[in-house]
Amino acid sequence: MPTLSATIVVYNGAEEALAAAASVLRHTQKYALTLYLVDNASPDHAGDTLRAALADGTISCKQNQVVRLICSPENKGFGGGHNLVLPELHSDYHFILNPDILVKGDVLSDMADWMEANPQAVMARPGLNFPDGKEQILPLQKCSALALVYRQLPQLGFLKRFNDRYVMAEADLSKPTKIEFCTGSFAMLRTDVMKKIGGFDEGYFMYVEDADLTQKARQEGDVYLLPQFTAIHAWHRAPHTDSAHFKMQMKSMLRYFSKWGFRL
């Protein structure tokens, strides 16, 4: 039987991560699971909250489950936080989860079963919904400069066609579909592939590191959207109007396009 692992990286706000962890542990029943909680040097001392939750039984495990807490002495960014678990992974399938993810069924085991039956696939994600049940329309194709501009400035309606291509608006997404961009909010990879490609490129501190990871995975096999499986994603999109976040985003996009080619 396949074995599973998953990582939730926390930067402030331990309570939401605890809810995510509880939902994953409660619903993952079919296969053994190791869940890693990584505190990325949270200024609000989220790591202490997570440690206390493990000690007092707030986080409870079944017989075939293990929870490991890793507290980083520095904020290594999204990808760097997830990479901390790479040396410890011995599972068959590894899941990258945001702390604002909730599952309502054994989605992790079901996705592992699908991957077992489809050996050409190396990476996949489920359909993601807002808490009210509305479907989230997320990128599915390689990063597009003009689509990214439109998503920041939707009043520029003449750019909508680029975003439509980016989200595969004209495709039938009701069945398993090959994609070029697998969101890092909920993604799974074959663990051997995750380790072979070295996990995330830590040259990205924030923004599009998941797009980069997808391109590396695509060199090893196919990447899929699996809409028959779903999860809830609260999708807290912080405003990025300050110059520091803008510069970070531009730096990440330049890194991505220099590696994988520019696309309008």
Mean pLDDT: 95
Question: Number of helix segments?
Answer: 9
Tell me the overall shape: globular
Largest sheet: 9 strands, mixed
Structural class call reads: alpha/beta
Distance between the termini: 44 Å
Work out the radius of gyration. 18 Å
SS elements, strand count: 9
Task: Give the percentage of residues in beta strands.
Answer: 15-25%
Order of helices and strands: EHEHEHEEHEHHEEHHEH
Question: How helical, in percent, are the residues?
Answer: 25-40%
Query: Which blocks of ≥5 consecutive residues have pLDDT under 50?
Result: none
What this model shows, in words?
It is a single chain. This protein is α/β, with parallel strands linked by helices and 264 residues long. The chain has helices at 14-27, 46-55, 77-83, 107-117, 145-152, 160-166, 191-196, 209-218, 243-260; strands at 4-10, 33-39, 65-71, 93-97, 101-102, 121-129, 177-178, 186-190, 222-233. Helix 5 (145-152) crosses helix 6. It starts with a strand and ends with a helix.
